[in-house]
Write a structure and sequence with these properties.
With 697 residues, the protein is mainly alpha-helical. It has helices at residues 2-21, 43-66, 73-82, 85-100, 104-125, 128-139, 148-162, 170-197, 215-227, 240-249, 253-264, 275-291, 297-301, 310-343, 354-366, 370-373, 379-394, 481-498, 519-525, 531-534, 549-557, 563-582, 590-598, 617-620, 630-648, 653-664, 672-680, 687-692, and strands at residues 203-205, 234-236, 397-400, 412-417, 423-430, 442-447, 450-451, 457-458, 461-465. The chain contains 28 helices and nine strands. The N and C termini lie far apart (85 Å).
Length: 697
């Protein structure tokens, strides 16, 4: 037995050594433009590479602390900024693929990885000698003659320590470490539960259940059923494009209710329930904030946001609530009257009825039919149109590069160059749902932009991921206007990352305050209803004909339809987020807590078994805790910013240049309010948003 055990140890050691020698993360990536060679990356490579990256980073930090010279901006702040490059290389790939191309093994190891990273991050924050050096540089900042970008790096570095427990001592330091590790585990578990439960929902229907559904959805459902060996049946899932289309078109109220209850009941019970997790996450965050001297998590979190404090957040949310509530009630009253008219009897709208009747009313009132628009939004043409927008505004070119290896057949890679042919970065696109991908849409980086000490500009590797309607056997992927809008949104984030032109990676691209980061993305959405933009690409996928004026006008005219409802729905998420993160005591009853939190912006009466929080990944695992309001905050900015384009021309080169140079290229190198005023010449107000939504004339 001893010999067998020894042999096993020897074999395991040999396997580890072989893996270490062939680990692609142990050196710079060798793909074109320094891209990862995904085919060489195995699950077994991640943890050894992360352990090595943490070890190297710790040595770099130890060298900063051991430096006998007095702390300076270069030998402390810049040195700290540059530490951990090897760790970042592996994390950029691991976390991106965990979201869009993961498997059970990757999810399992994420718990171990999150624990390692939490301990590593906490060890830096609570490194007292390092903190003393950072504080010394900060206290002498007035004599340093720093550039605005250097000032921002120093400020962010100092605040990352000061607001994260660097001054804690004794038992408080130990408690902070423990709570940080616990929070990391809880948020990871939350995200895994959301991702794991979604593919378990299979709704099998027969031909008799398909009333009202468009041909494209019926074909897709038949194809999914056939893949499962059940030809003649129809398989529906809760993937976003499937669910949204079903709720909009199904003429069966019983099936709409079933789908709605399944969708809003996700992660509320069973193996993947997050109900206990959300209470624990909120409480751990509260206790961490208390340790750091704040009465709640939102107070602590907003110190590093444009809003600065929860009171300013709630002031904006309530200002919008007051402005939009009368319009929302008017919308619901009109919709109820319309539904009653077409049904021939009084109708009381339920939450699963809104999309169905709203879509019908929109079509009747504005000659708007989303399904009639699909044939004009073939994905390949939409790609050309969205990319073409960046060409026209900013001079960018997007060229497919099959030599850049991707991680999945659905993913494509594009070289991005400027008007002079200079390489800007690589853009990866990944558009269709699959079991290995979480729901939703997002942008991230495999690698961010920075400048080396010799001035070499290290360009970014940017990824946008969505879950669009899949192609069928006889039709390409045809998008809804909402999906085109989603593409524009994520592409705006991508431009923010691609056009980054900073010195430090922690300040480049989308590394800005959370309530500023949505400005470029939401700004892009404005073009969806602009005729000059749509004319550039919206062609019928069979005939090649331009979108008819009637459809085009219907899309444009419908832009304000349902704006008040949509705003109140978003405000509901914002109110819920702030409630979870302004609580000053543990939450006992999550259901009652959620109902009370959303009551000020409640549209429909609460339904038993339905909750938002247990699958609300943005705030419980996605980085938007006490920050979901950012979408509305940034919407105020984007409406005001686009107003400048409408005043000067939506493709005006000078206006586009100002936006590019002061917003897209600057990242977080200066305070966002300073950057915005430099572009716009004034602070934003809600007036442009109210006008755009038709609330104010």
């Amino acid at each position: 037995m001893k010999l067998k055990a020894l042999a096993a140890v020897v074999a395991a050691t040999a396997t580890f050594m072989a893996s270490a020698q062939n680990n692609p993360f142990f050196s710079e990536f060798t793909g074109e433009h320094g891209t990862p060679l995904f085919s060489q990356i195995k699950n077994e490579h991640y943890i050894p590479a992360i352990d090595r990256g943490i070890d190297l980073a710790n040595k770099e930090i130890a060298a900063i602390v051991a430096n006998s010279e007095a702390p300076t901006f270069e030998n402390t702040i810049v040195a700290l900024e540059k530490s951990g490059k090897d760790l970042s290389r592996v994390l950029g790939v691991y976390f991106a693929l965990l979201e869009c191309n993961s498997d059970d093994e990757m999810m399992e190891m994420s718990m171990e990885i999150s624990s390692k990273l939490s301990d590593y991050s906490t060890s830096i924050i609570l490194n007292e000698p390092l903190w003393k050096r950072v504080r010394a540089v900060w206290e002498g900042r007035d004599k340093l003659n720093l550039t605005p970008e250097q000032q921002m790096l120093l400020k962010n570095t100092y605040e990352s320590f000061a607001l994260s427990g660097a001054d804690l001592e004794g038992a408080d330091r130990d408690e902070y470490k423990r709570l940080s590790s616990e929070l990391s585990q809880l948020t990871t578990m939350f995200g895994q539960n959301v991702q794991k439960e979604l593919p378990t929902y299979e709704i099998w229907l027969t031909k008799d259940d398909l009333a009202g559904l468009p041909e494209s959805q019926v074909e897709a459902a038949a194809l999914e059923a056939e893949k499962k060996g059940r030809k003649g049946e129809y398989l529906f899932t809760l993937d976003a494009p499937v669910y949204m289309a079903f709720m909009k078109y199904s003429a069966r109220p019983d099936l709409r209710e079933k789908m709605w209850r399944l969708y809003t009941g996700r992660n509320t019970k069973g193996e993947f329930s997050n109900v206990d997790n959300i209470k624990k996450i909120a409480d751990v965050r509260r206790r961490i904030a208390n340790l750091l001297g704040s009465k709640n998590y939102a107070e602590q979190s907003t110190k590093q946001k444009m809003a600065r404090n929860p009171e300013n957040v709630m002031a904006l949310l309530n200002q919008l609530r007051e402005a939009y509530t009368p319009a929302m009630h008017a919308e619901i009253d009109s919709l109820t009257a319309y539904a009653s008219k077409i049904e021939g009897h009084p109708v009381t709208l339920k939450p699963w009825d809104y999309s169905y009747y709203s879509n019908k009313y929109k079509a009747a009132k504005h000659a708007f039919d989303e399904e009639a628009l699909r044939p004009y939004f073939e994905l390949d043409k939409v790609i050309n149109g969205v990319f073409g927008l960046a060409t026209r505004l900013y001079g960018l070119q997007f060229t497919p590069n099959p030599r850049v290896e991707t991680y999945h057949p659905d993913a494509k890679a594009f070289d991005v160059t400027d008007a002079d042919g200079k390489f800007i970065g690589v853009l990866y696109t990944d558009f269709f749902p699959r079991a290995s991908k979480r729901p939703g849409a997002w942008m991230t980086n495999f690698k961010e932009q920075w400048r080396e000490a010799d001035g070499t500009d290290s360009r970014p590797l940017v990824q946008i991921v969505m879950n669009f309607t899949k192609p069928t056997a006889d039709k390409p992927s045809l998008l809804t206007p909402y999906e085109v809008e989603t593409f524009l949104h994520e592409f705006g984030h991508a431009l923010h990352g691609l056009l980054a032109n900073g010195t430090y990676s922690s300040l480049s691209g989308t590394n800005v305050y959370r309530d500023f980061v949505e400005l470029p993305s939401q700004f892009n959405e404005n073009y969806l209803t602009k005729k000059e933009f749509l004319d550039s690409f919206a062609r019928h996928y069979v005939t090649g004909e331009a979108m008819p004026e009637s459809l085009l006008n219907g899309l444009i005219a419908s832009a304000q339809y349902g704006a008040a409802y949509a705003c109140m729905r978003q405000l509901g998420f914002g109110f819920l987020d702030m409630a979870w993160h302004t609580t000053e005591a543990p939450v006992e009853d999550a259901v009652a807590f959620e109902i009370e939190a959303m009551r000020p912006v409640q549209i429909f009466e609460p339904v038993e078994g339905s909750m938002t929080s247990p699958s609300f990944g943005h705030i419980f695992s996605g980085g938007y805790a006490a920050g979901y309001y950012s979408y509305k905050w940034a919407e105020v900015l984007d409406a005001d910013a686009f107003a400048a384009f409408e005043e000067e021309g939506i493709f005006n080169p000078a206006t586009a240049r100002r936006f590019k140079e002061n917003i897209l290229m600057k990242g977080g190198s200066e305070a966002p309010d300073v950057l915005y005023r430099r572009f716009r010449g004034k602070d934003a107000t809600i007036d442009a948003l109210l006008r755009r939504d038709g609330i104010k004339k």
